[in-house]
Amino acid sequence: MSVIFAREMGFCMGVRRAVALIEKELDKDNPGPLATYGPLIHNPQVVASYESRGVRSIKNPAEARSGDRVVIRAHGVPGSVRRSLEERGARIVDATCPKVALSIRKAKQAEAEGRQVLLVGDAGHGEMLAVAGSLADPGSVQVIADLEDARKVHLASRVSVIAQTTFDEEIYKQIAEILCSRVVDCRVESSICPATRSRQEAVRRLARNVDGIVVIGGKNSANTRRLYDLALSTGIPAWHVEGPDDVPPEVGELKTVGISAGASTPDESIHQTADRILELQGEK
Fold it and tell me: pTM of this prediction?
């Protein structure tokens, strides 16, 4: 019996950067209250840890106070939110992932060129809201979630297509092909984060060598859900857990268990979950 880890998993560059920034702010001596705009990352254990250290999470600019330091999470925020925070006297600590910031710049450039901006991802996801909200006319943006949306969406004569950085790359290619078959001037941006790509490929490779896969990460984490869906699609049993307490007993019945984890999952959660699986297998 054994546990095998995916070659690529856990914190991505954008999450590591966000965590490093908030740790830097926590190390400062009395510079003012600290808050995050929404949960810093989609991991309940990490969020709870920061709350225990006095970091509060706010859901709208009205909750910010003059003098607050407000950390913008890796997903970014719409321009209107940023302006409202500044107007309320908050000092912004920008932890927007550089990959998301690049998508925002590409969307602004497309709008300036008179192109229709099409976003491929989860409608309502923080990153999608941030990219659309960066434009002069956020309401003009169409968000495409799947192949059916790509076939039905109304298209202008010139379009730019930008994917959520954590979107499934193969599905993005299929969506882009459908869109570009429907319009002459179609610009498809390579916006999926390399970390997402490598994690997805690591799950595919892992599935060839294990009897089942446990994917660790927040239930509200889009990239973790995609890893879980990908694991299921390989035809072997798969489970999405937030930590060791969620691992079901039947996992212990498998001879070899693979472990993957979302981009917001800390190493501690990964190792604790692996230990729990070994316990269930009778190895600890």
Answer: 0.86
